[in-house]
Amino acid sequence: MDNSNLAITLVLISAFAHATWNAVVRAGSSRFMTLAMVDGTALLICLAALPLVNVPSPQVWGYVMISVVLNTLYRLFLIKAYETGDFGQVYPVMRGVPPVLVALFSCFLLHEQLSFQAMAGVLLIGAGIISLTFVRRMTAQMCKPILMAVCAGAFVACYTVVDAKGVRASETVLQFIIYLTVCQSIPIPLLAYLQERSTFTHAVRNHWRVGVMGGVFYLVSYGLVLFALSLDAVAKVSALRETSVIIGAIIAALFFHERFGWRRMLSAFVIVCGIILIKVST
User: Fold this and answer.
1) What mean pLDDT do residues 206-227 have?
2) Using CA atoms, how far apart are residues 3 and 210, in angstroms rounded to an integer?
3) What number is the average pLDDT over the span 163-179?
4) How many CB atoms lie within 10 A of CB 173?
5) Which listed site, 57, 98, 108, 171, has its alpha carbon 20 to 30 Å from 210?
6) Is residue 240 over pLDDT 70?
7) Residue 163: which of 74, 112, 231, 234 has the closest Cα?
8) 207-213 contacts: CB < 8 A, separation 24 or more?
9) How much is the pLDDT for 264?
10) What family is this protein classified in (predicted)?
11) Arithmetic mean of pLDDT over the chain
């Protein structure tokens, strides 16, 4: 299997894991505490793995620190979006914004050039994802969560480009994955502990299984996409990863009882067409 096909396979597995851990956070009674437990699980796993890799160079540390700031801002907007909006509408917006922005960023910052077919695939995936937002009639109450989701998506686009540069500058892919996860998994659990110590302790004691499941899926999702970023064009990897919205729509219908109608099926068809265009462009 060549690098491009391997990257596509890894990203599609990552998409499933990503939709799953986001659904875990959305299903939690406290999104903030659930996300803190998810990050805490990833932190403990990667702390145990630190002896497996060397300490990064100063250049790589710079990328790690920038990504930590962007990831933390993304998480804060993610929490706000899930606290006020439906999973089926918030998740598609949040994942629909990055492919288009990453395609632009990668051209100007990473000097990557996509073929016409690949660019058309990226745009189709972005359009299909964003169209999922309009499955339900828009109301004034939906404006805030959608705005939060757009902001979260913008930060996803930013940290994706930073991570691509960081993982390519690292000694190994595993080195960047472990050190980045350790650093970016500290802020949210620390904030949860400092702000609501008793609530956080109660959540860990009574719902730790949910946190562990979400943390494992989060680590699998992020680790695989970082590895894929080292194998293929950033815009293509970003677009393919956002196919997780199809899985997210199914989860929303099955577990959150959100309607799955012909519009979502049409959006899914557009996304699949985008995937096919990207695949044939390799």
Assistant:
1) 86
2) 34
3) 91
4) 18
5) 98
6) yes
7) 234
8) 207/28, 207/33, 207/34, 207/37, 208/37, 210/24, 210/27, 210/28, 210/34, 210/37, 211/34, 211/36, 211/37, 211/38, 211/40, 211/41, 212/37, 212/41, 213/24
9) 67
10) Belongs to the drug/metabolite transporter (DMT) superfamily. Small multidrug resistance (SMR) (TC 2.A.7.1) family.
11) 80
